[in-house]
Amino acid sequence: MKSITKYIKYLLVLLFALSLYQCEENYTENISDNPKITLSVPTAPGHAQYKVQVESGYDITVPVKISSSSNLKEFKITKTLNLNADPSFGDNGVMTVFNSDKGKDFDYSFTYIPSTQDVDQLVGFTFTAVNNDGSVSESDLTLVVTLSPRDNLPRKRWNLKSVLWVTNPDHPNQESISDCEKDNSMLLNADGTMSVDYGTDTGSGNCAYDGLTVYDSWELTPDDQYFIRTSHGLFTPDVEVTDTFVVRTLTVQQFAIEQTVDLSVFGGGTDEKFLYVYDAGPR
Known about the structure:
Order of helices and strands: HEEEEEEEEEHEEEEEEEEE
Distance between the termini: 76 Å
Number of domains: 2
Shape: elongated
CATH architecture of the largest domain: Beta Barrel
Radius of gyration: 30 Å
Keywords: Signal
Structural class: mainly beta
Helix content: 10-25%
Strand content: over 45%
Number of strands: 18
Low-confidence stretches: 11-21, 23-30
CATH topology of the largest domain: Lipocalin
């Protein structure tokens, strides 16, 4: 009796394994590679799956190649955000690249700029092609979007931690921050405006002139190489002053910018460089 029971158990295991194999075989047979859609980016596990890591605010370009045994008649791209159609993309989440005869081969460059709304979300793009035989195929692209240092700037308060006199002839990179500046901070707003907080230690000594300069706007050049700030004097509102800084460090934790100033009237050089180092803190 025990041998019969044991035999039945083995038979059930064999039948289960066979059913799994048949399901996998049927699944493979149902996958269409005509038309064939190929993305020139890293692949991911699964059939026609791709994955790319990117930072917000920086465009990504994906070369797409489609080949078919008969003429292509439609190609569209669908974006999902957390598995739901993203209405901000294309027409309610769908962008139609073409819906007319395009021949058997088609090359396309898909460009997308991830926004801060995509950060740490499940961002997916489905590329769908249809040919004149009615065959449909799809390829899926997953974007892993992290917050870029650029987009992080308006999300933090930037606390002044150091002012280095880079070109000091006697002591290069000499720390030159005044005690009254150590509680200074700035806010760089998303709309391009900015403000400076001088803290509680202000209005005397080396900080006697705090508040006489009103800061109006800020801009980071597209290549992240320069930080441009505009301001005006409290008593000269019609005179705009533009200062340009070289960006030396730009991370989500630190922002360091270098300014060249003319100190010849004070006995210094005409091209003295100062490096302002800011650390990120809660806004």
